[in-house]
Specification:
By secondary structure, this protein is an alpha+beta fold. It is built from 5 helices and 11 strands.
Length: about 200
């Protein structure tokens, strides 16, 4: 995976070449990613989170975007839908997704600089917990939380939220129903989460 080839960009989003994933994160090149957030409108509006596998090199066992990944050098944003099928096993076409735009963010920690141009999309579905088929080496579980709580959480109005769903342990689905805080999430910039919840709210309210 560290040898995957990614397109790299300057600060004005002009492509300046291609580099390995390892080099991209070591030197802090801007690169493209695909993010898709799942929403359902059942008795309430819910947003869905994946629980990253404990085997992941980066951010193991933390909650994250429903489905996301890097766009490889030969791919366009239209190819990003493969991440959805690969990670949570749900077939979705690009035509079913609602584009939310490109959000830039940067996470800088020792030996790892993640500067992403994230192509962000929204999918509105149903029965997501039942239909998901998780890629176990990438995704350990999937949960949902009320969108209004998620919105207030990232806008600074709540310190905690309740999530419910399941984690796969060996071949068994183990229920998750617990209270979590921001330490339980992949540390994308707060501004990223704020932008996402505002954009989703505009589409579903």
């Amino acid at each position: 995976m560290e040898n995957e080839m990614l397109k790299i960009f300057d600060d004005n989003r002009n492509q300046i070449g291609i580099a390995t994933r390892e080099e991209v994160h070591k030197l802090g090149h801007w690169h493209e990613a695909f993010h898709c957030w799942f929403i359902s409108k059942e008795d309430k509006g819910y947003i869905y989170l994946q629980l990253r596998s404990a085997m992941k090199k980066d951010y193991p066992s933390l909650f994250d975007i429903t489905a996301a990944g890097h766009l490889l050098a030969h791919e366009t944003v239209l190819d990003g839908v493969r991440e959805i099928k690969e990670e949570i096993g749900i077939d979705v076409s690009i035509q079913e997704l609602i584009p939310l735009g490109i959000i830039e963010y940067c996470v800088n920690r020792t030996g790892f600089i993640d500067k992403e141009l994230t192509n962000v999309y929204l999918f509105i579905g149903e029965n997501i917990l039942k239909e998901a088929l998780l890629q176990r080496e990438e995704v350990a579980g999937i949960v949902r939380t009320e969108f209004e709580s998620f919105y207030k959480f990232w806008m600074g109005e709540l310190d905690q939220i309740r999530v419910e769903g399941y984690e796969m342990i060996e071949e068994s689905k183990i229920s998750i129903d617990k209270i979590i805080n921001k330490d339980n999430f992949v540390p994308h910039e707060i501004s990223y989460y704020e932008n996402v919840v505002k954009l989703i709210a505009e589409k579903i309210r």
